């Protein structure tokens, strides 16, 4: 049997990434594309289908089993030129991608590929910055404005039946400052979360908690961010969570006292 020359074009298919990433990269027949695939781990041997046996044995150690993606019926024709990092012999008949390898024949699906664990960062790398502390402590501004708001309620009697109605003048400037400041703090917290997320990436944290979670609330980002940082920096990174817990507890106490005072003032006004 004559072995064809290795000068025919390599057909499109999945081949080992020439950059050495350990993934498979799609070869479109002319050049490498940006599509990469991380195959799941599989166990057991799988025999290549009938009709592929000859291709799997064409040349010593030459890959010939079916490769995943785009319905390709083989990694390439016997004797076809392989892309870089995928030359013949690398994935032979009984190798990882050969006729009886992990991805030959039936190729059972073993579930989604789990992301690689985050590596720990150096102990000298700071895990706190002004951005995360501002995200955590900005609600104090709203709390202060709430405590300064001392509404005086007046009741008006409207109509022939003299229906008691609350006078809108009770909602004075501090009330509107309270509402406006809450929205401003919300927007600033999202921006600061984005800056903190960028800072963590520059400091070497792999896949930090995404800043977009701040749209659900600053507390969501603070907790998620602290959990991720604590994983890559053991015994560090949880200080913002404790500060958030303390601030939340203090806010609940002060808001409860303030709400009781407002309700009492409103009840007296309605009795007049």
The whole-number mean of residue pLDDT values reads 74
**Radius of gyration based on Cα positions:** 33 Å
The end-to-end span amounts to 109 Å
What portion of residues belong to β-strands? 5-15%
Number of strands: 5
Which of globular, elongated, flat, extended, rod-shaped describes the shape?
elongated
Count of all domains: 2
Number of H/I helices: 6
Low-confidence stretches: 42-107
- Binned, the helix content reads 25-40%
Q: Output the helix-strand order.
A: EEEHHHEEHHH
The major β-sheet equals:
3 strands, antiparallel
What structural category arises from helix and sheet content? Answer: mainly alpha
Task: Describe the overall structure.
- With 272 residues, the protein is mainly alpha-helical.
- The chain folds into 2 domains: 1-114, no CATH class; 130-271, no CATH class.
- 37% of the residues lie in helices and 8% in strands.
- The strands form 2 sheets. A 3-stranded antiparallel β-sheet has the order 1-2-3, with no helix packed on it.
Please sum up the structure shown.
The chain has helices at residues 53-56, 130-137, 139-148, 173-202, 218-232, 239-271; strands spanning 13-16, 24-27, 32-37, 155-158, 163-166. With 272 residues, it is mainly alpha-helical.
